[in-house]
Amino acid sequence: MPNEVNRPLTAMSKEILFHTTFAHETSKTWVVFVHGAGGSSAIWFRQLKAYKKEYNVLLLDLRGHGKSNNLVQNFVDNNYSFNNVSKDIIDVLDHNNITSAHFVGISLGTIIIRNIAEIAPQYVSSMVLGGAVTRFNTRSNTLVYLGNTFKHFLPYMWLYRLFAFIMMPKKRHKESRLLFVREAKRLCQKEFIKWFKLAMDVNPLMQYFKEKDIDIPILYIMGKEDHMFLGPVKEMVKRHKNSVLQTIHHCGHVCNVERPDLFNQHSLAFIAQQNR
What we know:
The chain is of the alpha/beta class.
C-alpha cells in the first residue's frame, strides 16, 4: 500500500483542465509537465517515476486532449490562442496553490511554456524544453500550408500520420510515431482543426520570443535527428544568454520517449542546479 502522500490526486471541473498531482513527502518544489498537440499527460510515463522521487509533480491534459476532451462545451468553444491555452494552465496552478514551478515540455507544449513565462513569469522558475518548436522551417511551413488547405477534406488522422512520418522518419523513431498517432486518435476532427489553426501562429510568436531574451533559465533538449526543429533551436540559443542546448545522439523529435534515460538525467540535473 503506497504512502497516502504519494497517491495521485485528480481533478476535473468545468473551470479547469483534468490534472493529476503527486505530492512529495518533504520537497516543496513543483515540476509541471506540458505535452504537445495531439498528445496527453500519458507521454510522460517514462519521466514520472524519476521525478516523483525528487519533487512534487503536476501532470495535465491540455484542452481537447486526453481526459480534458470532455470539458463542458462553453469552455471548449472558446477561441484557441496561445494566451488562452496558457491561462488554462495558470488556472490549474492557482487551483493547487502552486505559486512557482519548474516546467518541462515537449514539442508544441514548449511554446505554451515559453508563453506562460512571457505573460506570467512569476510562475516559472525554469524551463526544460524538449523537441522544442522555436520556428517552422521551409519543410514544416509547407506541411502546415498543405494541412491547412486540406484539413476540411481529408480525415485528420491521415494528416496526422503523414506529419508523424515526416517529422520522425527513421526506424528507431517508430515507437514515438506510434505513440504520437495513438494519442491523437482521442482528438475529434473539430479539435484537430482548432489546434492546427493555433499552429499557424507559431512563427510570429516565436519571432517575438527570438528577439526578446528572458531572465529565466532554459534548457533545450533536442534529438540530433530532429531535422525539422534542431537548427532553429541552435539559432535561438546563440542569441539568448540564459539558454543552453543539450543534444542527444540517435534520437529524433520526441526525445523524452526515445531516450528517457538521458532526457531524465539532463533535465533533473538542470533543475537541481536551479534549486541550489
